């Protein structure tokens, strides 16, 4: 039986997610950036929030004229301590607040992954990794703020950037902390009969 190629749309403008997918040979046919309301609901916990955001991004991308017969992949990354959802930092003060809260503590990174199949069925996964920062000095935080690597990052840091020097331990998927668990994306695509295009 001849395999039918299904175009894959990535519902994210994140260059990190594109690079991650490229690492396992998944080349999206197109990119659709979705602007959705990312405000957590009253009392919403971090893990279900991450899954909901991923599903809503996939649904939003479907309304923006993706290629006919395409599957849509979306992801969301949430940094949390307990019930507290950390923001994507847009100012140096917000990044400093996040780093001071994360200093010397373990926190969770929840990755929501959603796949909207061509038949309209939504399937999703939730992946959780644990990250432990060393106790950060005022100088550590000031140097990191000066790097500007915190801009737009959930929790004020990116593990693949300068912040790696301050991370003592991780448990779980590293790629999930970067932006997408590659193991789970691969399993989700395969489990739903979608053969990814392999780069040459």
* Number of E strands: 7
Radius of gyration using CA atoms only: 17 Å
Determine the N-to-C terminus distance.
Answer: 23 Å
Strand content: 15-25%
Q: What is the general shape? A: elongated
The top-level CATH class is Alpha Beta
Query: What is the helix content?
Result: 25-40%
The third-level CATH topology is Maf protein
Total of domains: 1
Q: Could you say which structural class the secondary elements and strand pairing correspond to?
A: alpha/beta
Uncertain regions spanning at least 5 consecutive residues:
none
Question: H/E series, N to C?
Answer: EHEHEEHEEHEHH
What's the tally of helices? Answer: 6
SSE blueprint:
Layout: E1 8-10, H1 15-23, E2 30-31, H2 46-62, E3 71-81, E4 84-85, H3 92-102, E5 106-116, E6 122-133, H4 138-147, E7 167-171, H5 174-178, H6 182-191
Parallel strand pairs: 1-2, 1-3
Antiparallel strand pairs: 3-4, 3-5, 5-6, 6-7
Characteristics:
elongated; 6 helices; Maf protein; about 30% helix; alpha/beta; 7 strands
Give a brief outline of the structure:
The chain has helices spanning 15-23, 46-62, 92-102, 138-147, 174-178, 182-191; strands at 8-10, 30-31, 71-81, 84-85, 106-116, 122-133, 167-171. It has 200 residues and is an alpha/beta fold. It has one domain: Maf protein.
Question: What would you note in describing this structure?
Answer:
The protein is of the alpha/beta class and 200 residues long. It has one domain (8-191): Maf protein (Alpha-Beta Complex), CATH 3.90.950. It is built from six helices and seven strands, in the order βαβαββαββαβαα. It has helices at residues 15-23, 46-62, 92-102, 138-147, 174-178, 182-191; strands spanning 8-10, 30-31, 71-81, 84-85, 106-116, 122-133, 167-171. β3 (71-81) and β4 form a beta hairpin. The longest helix is centred in the first third of the chain and has 17 residues, at 46-62. The chain is elongated and about 50 Å long. The two termini are 23 Å apart. 36% of the residues are buried. The model has no long low-confidence stretch (mean pLDDT 92).
